[in-house]
Amino acid sequence: MILDPRTLGRECLARAFATRRVRMEVAAFASMQEWKSVKDLHSPLGAILFNLSGRSFADPEVVSEITQLVSDFHPVPVVVLADEGDVTEIFTALECGVRGYIPATVGIDACIEAINLAIAGGVFVPASSLFALRQALDPSFREAKPISSVFTPREAAVVEALRRGKANKIIAYELDMCESTVKVHIRHIMKKMKATNRTEVAYKINSLFNSEEAAS
Fold it and tell me: Do 108 and 22 touch, CB atoms closer than 8 A?
């Protein structure tokens, strides 16, 4: 079952799954309430794919909703589809009981395999996030310069938003700038941090903040 409040999003996902001829029926709904209103509920659920649709686990409502979903449908695995592959988001999702965290950067085939892994009893997380965690634990990152000496004021504002796992469009809205400008700032930040993606940026930045707090 695909849960996505956006009509286009869930219909595209359902049709993409159908073209891959997955070994199960795929049903898409805007919400659990819509699913429960369907009379024919005889087919057992194999898995639930929950699209965050731009939301974040930094939102307590998302945490509550996912936790409740996992509890209500246990042992049916719940897999989350998110815009970003932020490690802090992944950890929170796993704490809520999800059996997979799929960033939107993966293809449909990888998405299907992640769901199959969850059905088989495994847990899927993107490899890039594990790499970022390893990089973050490298002691050399703790010797980085203070935040104020590394970034411009605008970059520092973007950095703080990245730490909180916010999507580019949210950052653009809150900082009153174009989304394309946000992307430019992120590229500059990644270059300064010698990071290959925003997940690495978030962990390296957290390491810098923790070092400054410890020093103070």
Answer: no
Q: What does the alpha-carbon distance between residue 212 and residue 174 come to, in Å, rounded to a whole number?
A: 25
Q: Going by C-beta distance under 8 Å and a sequence separation of 6 or more, which residues neighbour residue 128?
A: 85, 196, 197, 199
As to burial, measured by CB atoms within 10 angstroms (0-12 exposed, 13-18 middle, 19+ buried), residue 159 is buried
CATH of domain 2-125: 3.40.50.2300
Topology given in CATH for the domain delimited by 131-215: Arc Repressor Mutant, subunit A (1.10.10)
pTM over 0.90, yes/no: no
- Per-block mean pLDDT, blocks of 10 residues, the chain (216 long): 92 89 85 79 82 89 94 94 84 93 88 92 83 58 53 84 85 88 88 80 72 50
